[in-house]
Write a structure and sequence with these properties.
The structure is a homodimer.
Chain A: H1 10-21, E1 24-25, H2 26-36, H3 45-58, E2 61-67, E3 73-79, H4 81-105
Antiparallel strand pairs in A: 1-3, 2-3
Helix pairs in contact in A: 1-4
Chain A binds a DNA duplex through residues 5-9, 11, 25-28, 43-47, 49-51, 70-75.
Chain lengths: 110, 110
Amino acid sequence: MITARIKRGSAELAILALLAEEPLHGYEIARRIEKQSGGVLRFTLASLYPLLYRMDKRGWVRGAWQTLPSGRQRRCYELTPKGRKQMPPMLKEWGLFFRALHKLAGVSRA
Amino acid sequence: MITARIKRGSAELAILALLAEEPLHGYEIARRIEKQSGGVLRFTLASLYPLLYRMDKRGWVRGAWQTLPSGRQRRCYELTPKGRKQMPPMLKEWGLFFRALHKLAGVSRA
DNA sequence: TCCCTATATATAGGCTTCCGATGTATATGT
DNA sequence: ACATATACATCGGAAGCCTATATATAGGGA
């Protein structure tokens, strides 16, 4: 039986989902999480960068330095096949968790 | 704007929801969380008891020792009015959070 | 009789995950 | 000139949960 632990780990899923659409750099990821969640999910940069390094180390994303025309540097992250494989089980686990919490406490999406 | 932090804190909500139906002792709470969530939410007793003490300290629940006919003792927890008031905002926050995660990553309840 | 499981509470120690505060540096608008 | 936005980075710490362990009683099966 799949058991969904009670945990916050939704940040990783959010990042994977964003990078599944297109490669992004850190600062842009944070902005999109806030924007695309309607301002609900706030995510500080102090949380984001260590998270990205960890996901890079695991091989879920691959970061590469870019040099902008201005000469400025930034790190662009791309989803790897291994990272893409992580998504379905995470989606399933969160779905299960949500349904369970709904059954117990009546949490609704509406 | 209400911002839902990314956190696991669902345990407190689950406990409040169970105690809203009827007073229960710790061991029974853990059993019901597992049972009523279809085995999805697992919750170790080592997490549960400190949580109950904290909620008692905050005045959300009130624990009282019972002596069973067998002479055995156990602690029965009851929801307080203050505890009941915590539920609607928590439900709202979790609802917002799930909608946001659904928008971002496609987490579904179905 | 002895052991195993279930019931019931409790604590120590530690891990993961996230946040606040702070720092550095460049680009852009006013 | 100055404020704001962009962009990355780290330190320290808090929160929330788990593993392991301890204690003690009750009931069932070998």
